Every structure is written in structure tokens, then in C-alpha cells.
Write the C-alpha cells for this entry.
Amino acid sequence: MTSRQSAGEADKLVRRYLAQLDAALRGVDASRREEILAEVRGHIDEGRTGLDPGDAASVRTLLDRVGDPAAIAAEAGAPPPGSRRWDAWAPWLIIFGPVASGLGWIAGMLILWTSPTWSRRDQLIATFVPLAGLVALFFGLVTVLRAAAGCPGHVPALHAAAGCTAKGLTLPLGVAILLVVAGLAAHLLPPIHLMRTRRQQRSTFA
Amino acid sequence: MHYMVPGEDMLAQVRRGVAEQCVLALLTRGERYGFELARELGARGRIIASEGTLYPLLARLRRNGLVETSWQESTAGPPRRYYRLTRDGELALASFKKQWRVFRDAVEEILSEGSPE
């Protein structure tokens, strides 16, 4: 590798870093954004004066010390990326989406995963737990209905799902009722938690 | 102005306010340019999250009139922006120092009461 190539590489690292910082500072007013960019650029130049201009590894270390552009932008008061605009819809779409239409649930997921309001953990829980709850609720409910109706068996889908056939899975009524309650809780509690988190954040930012 | 990230450690909030005062304190020993301040703060560890976060902080101090800046030629390269305490900055630091010591002592006392020994 010639030193000219690696000088190019080091310069490219710096340019890419400054472009990331510029993007992260979107939302900060223009004069402050320019001031911060110019100062960070000066800092990097200053840090490079003692270095071999082609030493890409030391430039990487230098940029590491300057730090994550997102952290600098947060210190500058830049709004975090993503939109909170549709936040209020997400919990309702997660609750009613799967029942009303799959599209509703997908819209809920889009809002949930693009909004900065919720943590990764909340997003994962609100994606999978309500669905699992719905499945439990369905099987529990079918079994309870079957028991109540004495397993009439003239609705084929329910018939099979409820385990009316001899081969099918038969659940004790107690377990079925437990499934209904647990399923309902699993379906509703994560979206309710999303609503609560959102309200807390709104009061923090207000 | 500042956005609280869920799960962001509490100390990050405290550090933000305290870091400003530490910058003011470093400037009582004479004017400095950004790189020098960043290295001094960075060397003490944990005062600023990373060297780059110093610059939004300095911009804030300047806007609030606690520091002022001037461009000076450098032998090593382009001109540097030097930061200097203003009268308001000195007053802010003096009042912070007083409050900080009372606050620190109170916290220390409560924390040590809380521990068994």
C-alpha cells in the first residue's frame, strides 16, 4: 500500500465522519450547527498535525475519541432521529390490528419500530407477546366454547381447533380458562405499557 | 432542550451540568482553544462523554455569555478559536462552587448514613 493511497483512506474516514456529524445535527439551528461542525473539524485537524497523514489507524483512534456523532448531536439538543408523530396509534393497532386486518397490525409495527419513543426491549415485547397472547386466547376460548356447547362439532374450523376429534388435543376446562386470562393479559399489557411510556416521555419533553 | 433517552444513566444528566462548570473552572487559568480543553477534560475521565461533546457545550456557554471567543493565529496550521471567561462566567462559577460544595457534602452525608458501616 503506498502512503498516497492510505492518505486518501484517512481523509475519507474524516470526510465520512464529518458527513455523519452534519446529518446528526439536522434540527439544530444553522449557525450553531456550523459552529460545532467547524470546531470539530478544527479539532480533528489539530489532532492530525502530529500524525503521519497516511496513518489511517491513528485517524480511526482519533475519531473514536471525538466520539459518536449522535452523542454530540444529543448534547447540541438535536431531536433524536425518527418521528413520534404517529405514536398514539401504535398500541391500538397492535391490539385491534390482528383481529380487524393484518394490514393494521403491520402499520402498528412500522410505527413502533421507527419511533424513537420506545426502547428495543419494549419493541420486541410489543411485537411478539401480544401475538402469542392472541393465539393462547383463541385456543382457550375455543375450548371453553366447546365445553359450554358440549362439543357440537358443526363448525369444522372450531371443531378441529377445539380438539373435538378423538385425535385432537383436549384441554381441561381449568387450563382453558387460564389460557383465556393469560392470553388476554399478554395481548393487552404490552400495548398498555407502550401508552404509559409514551405519556411519561411527553411530560418529560413538554 | 435536552432529550432524555429512556434508560440513559442518571449521572449523564448530572454530568452535563457539571461539565459546563468544569470548563469554566479550567478557563480561570487562562484562555484555551477547544482541542486543549478537550484533552484536559478527556484526561480526567468521565467529565465529558467524548471529546466531541465539548463543542456543543462550548457553543452553549458562549450563547449564554459565560465565555467569549477570539481567533488567534497558530504556528501549526489554521487560526484557532480561543475561549475566555467573561465576568458573567466568573460569577456563575463562583456561585456554582459554593452550591456544589454544600450539595456534595449533603449527598456524601446521606450516602454514608445509608451504608451499614
Observations:
- Residues 10-114 of chain B form a domain with the Arc Repressor Mutant, subunit A fold (CATH 1.10.10.10).
- The first strand of chain B starts at residue 32 and ends at 33.
- Helices of chain B lie at 10-27, 34-44, 54-63, 87-114.
- The beta strands of chain B are 32-33, 67-72, 80-85.
